[in-house]
Amino acid sequence: MAEWTGDDVFNDAEADEDRQRRKDIRRSLLGTVAGVAMLLGPIVLANAVVPDDDGDVRADDESAAPVITALQNRETTREADQARAGAALSMRTTTTAPPPPETTTTEATTTTTEAHEPIPVPPNSGGFGDPHSYETWDALAQCESGGNWEYSAGPYYGGLQFSLSTWRGMGLDGYPYEYSREEQIAAGIRLQESSGWNAWPACSRKLGLL
After folding, report:
1. ω into residue 155 within 30 of 0, thus cis?
2. Which of 39, 48, 104, 144 could form a disulfide with 161 if both were Cys (CB 3.0 to 4.6 A apart)?
3. What predicted TM-score, i.e. pTM, was given to this entire model?
């Protein structure tokens, strides 16, 4: 049986300590490589070199395979997420042009005002004071409305200041100021024939017609 000496024990302890130191260095290098690989991607990790227990440099250490696989899967997932994000952004930035506004064509409506039935105009005859004299009616209009045959302020209308009830009572439509001077005089003659000059009492007395 071989005898163990102090030197043998020392050498074994030194060898164990050396192996443990190599393992610690190897773990430290693996941690460093893994950190670098997480920053630089799987390409750098694939080319990383890892020392083995014997001090040789190897690029295909089986202990690094799980780390490489995990990083490759992470990189693949990240690329897929970036592709989905790019597609979503493209969909958000794509705008659809709004349809052109509908145009509606409204036919123009034409409002036609029916012409009033003209009032027959009697011939001008006689002189002032004669109901058929335009001179008489011009003087009466001058007194009643200042000679404004288009007076429309109401409640009396036209040059001879007809009330609307009197005008309509004679079977006439519209308003007196819508008729010509001659037609208003013709209406005045009709009223004078039925009511006399009392239809315009103040101005008739002023003009001496009463």
Report:
1. yes
2. 144
3. 0.46
